[in-house]
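Handout, section 3.2

Students often ask what a structure token actually looks like in practice. Rather than define it abstractly, here is a full record for 5-deoxy-glucuronate isomerase. The first block is the sequence as you would receive it.
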Amino acid sequence: MAHLKYTPVPRMLAKGVTLLQQIDSQNTSLHYIELKVMKLSAESSYQESLGEKEVCVVALTGKITVTDGEKQFSDLGTRKSVFEKIPTDSVYISIKQTFKISAVTEAVVVLCYAPSDKKKTTTLIKASDNTIEHRGVQQNKRLVHNILPDTCSIADRLLVVEVFTDGGNWSSYPPHKHDQDDLPRESLLEETYYHEMNPRQGFVFQRVYTDDRLLDETMTVENGDVVVVPKGYHPVGVPDGYDSYYLNVMAGPLRKWQFHNDPAHEWLLDRK
């Protein structure tokens, strides 16, 4: 199996456009998810033709304009840092489209991809469209921004969510998994985690493990790293003094998030 943690290896794609991360079937064991993290300088642009893939363009920080040649969405983006903890704007673009991203200011953009054979409508997902949740109790609290939840019908396969976890807390916890095509009990969804820390020199711990422990890896994850979860449980622990952000992308054969808790730790859900 390919390794699970990917550190940024910046390379120039075009003038003013730096590719920080690229996750796909060539360097991972994933079948349903691809990911790009890009930094654009002001007034630079990036263009791509999708083929048989859908994409969610997330304006992580800074301001951008996105067009598919027919629809244009200008001045997207709401924050200079993800740790402002406010939702941001995104754009969903369907298969066989060519899209262009133009940076109004310096910006970081995440492109979240999944294979698709269904033609959908290019859709602006405004920051105000994000549903906001506060999950967990005690040291298991986190803030969630749902960009593309399974309750909306915009996308074919993609699910996209942002999660903020304060220092000293755990996230994606109690440990849960979604690697079996066994609805209504559990759905099969691969997952990626794009991580940022505040302050930037911080780190978190993430464990990815299966019931049989044939996969059992615990990683020290730093700012800008991506963790790939092809299967198994995947909790995140955040040390005191540092806050955690991650952008989750999930995709599988069916667009349904139905998870299964690790039975050994499910008792934690009974705490008040």
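Discussion prompt for tutorial groups: Residues 5-270 form a domain with the Jelly Rolls fold (CATH 2.60.120.10). How would you have guessed this from the sequence alone?
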